[in-house]
């Protein structure tokens, strides 16, 4: 099994050098396509033409596509795994919060799950990304900076600090703060109560045609390791040639849905570096997403070096000055500190038993 494997050669990364510290919940506490859905005559793998495509996955549909995206803060503490709802996410951003602990911003639009969680507290840089996608932002708790943004209406949001026991509920299987969940039915109720407009689609990403996919070039990426300086949060992606998708593993365990056991399967992986700075004694961070930088794009068993840009709040891959085309399907974006950076924190070495 994967968790019994070890690297066959020394990986490129030496790990992040930042000190870990435990997380604490706050107390009550391209240019890409326009927002309208795309009408295209490109075909999918069975050569069927579709009038419409989902904006965040590129998957075709005969029916008109409607619905605002919803961005949910999902806990990645070891006590919160396996999570619920991740396999249905169109895009997931994985970013450090306190210490070496990562947290997920899971963006749903094409196929929202019934239940999602554990839901965790807001951070300002996650709110920026949610706003960029015009998403309704779901969290439970705040950092100090995030609460200021929330109180001032920076982004439409529903927070479990105000709706614990109503729109949010606690699972008896886990202990707080790793047991907050909500449903998309409750999210819709909350949006209606707060009079949030849920009709506008998010801006569309750029996707490949079938012929584009056949021409993907790059170095071999059958296995990808992303180091966050802790085996509890280090990530391995393993390419499955049969499905032509990547499986995701953390701490030796495959990322699957807690309820159904359905695995997270990915078509695009973006790994990017950005400046990180610890800003308080709890280890909270300020991350500079304003200037862009270097990134790796992983697709269909290949990887190549590209760049990333901030496009109106969305952190997206670019190649040769243009939006990088994604394979139709789901995308996971890992953000790592620029010190030590991509070359020391990411490895494409083969993993053998």
From TrEMBL:
DUF3048 domain: residues covered: 56-196, 226-333
Entries under Pfam families matching the protein: DUF3048, DUF3048_C
InterPro entries in alphabetical order: DUF3048_C, DUF3048_N, YerB-like_sf
Region (Disordered): 22-49
SUPFAM superfamilies documented for this protein: YerB-like
Acidic residues: bias regions: 22-44
Record's protein name: DUF3048 family protein
């Amino acid at each position: 099994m994967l968790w019994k494997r070890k690297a066959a050669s020394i990986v490129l990364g030496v790990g992040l050098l930042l000190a870990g510290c435990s997380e604490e919940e706050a107390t009550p506490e391209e240019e890409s396509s326009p927002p309208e859905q795309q009408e295209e005559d490109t075909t999918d793998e069975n050569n069927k033409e579709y009038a419409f495509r989902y904006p965040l996955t590129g998957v075709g549909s005969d029916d008109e596509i409607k619905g605002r995206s919803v961005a949910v803060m999902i806990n990645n503490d070891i006590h919160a795994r396996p999570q619920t709802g991740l396999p249905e996410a169109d895009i997931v951003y994985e970013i450090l919060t306190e210490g070496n602990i990562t947290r997920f911003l899971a963006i749903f639009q094409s196929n929202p799950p019934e239940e999602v969680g554990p839901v965790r507290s807001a951070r300002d840089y996650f709110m920026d990304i949610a706003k960029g996608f015009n998403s309704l932002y779901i969290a439970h708790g705040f950092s100090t900076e995030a609460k200021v943004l929330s109180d001032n209406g920076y982004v439409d949001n529903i927070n479990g600090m105000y709706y614990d026991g109503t729109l949010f509920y606690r699972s008896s299987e886990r202990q707080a703060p790793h047991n907050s969940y909500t449903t998309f039915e409750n999210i819709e109720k909350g949006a209606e109560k707060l009079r949030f407009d849920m009709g506008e689609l998010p801006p569309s990403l750029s996707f490949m045609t079938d012929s584009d996919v056949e021409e993907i070039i790059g170095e071999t990426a059958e296995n990808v390791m992303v180091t966050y300086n802790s085996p509890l949060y280090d990530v391995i992606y393993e390419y499955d040639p049969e499905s032509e998708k990547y499986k995701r593993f953390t701490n030796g365990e495959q990322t699957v849905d807690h309820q159904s056991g359905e695995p997270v399967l990915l078509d695009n992986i973006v790994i990017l570096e950005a400046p990180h700075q610890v800003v308080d004694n709890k280890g909270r961070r300020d991350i500079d997403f304003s200037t862009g930088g270097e990134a790796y794009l992983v697709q269909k068993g290949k990887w190549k070096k590209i760049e990333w840009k901030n496009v109106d709040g969305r952190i997206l891959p670019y190649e040769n000055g243009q939006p990088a085309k994604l394979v139709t399907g789901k995308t996971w974006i890992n953000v790592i500190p620029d010190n030590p950076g991509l070359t020391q924190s990411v490895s494409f070495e083969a993993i053998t038993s």
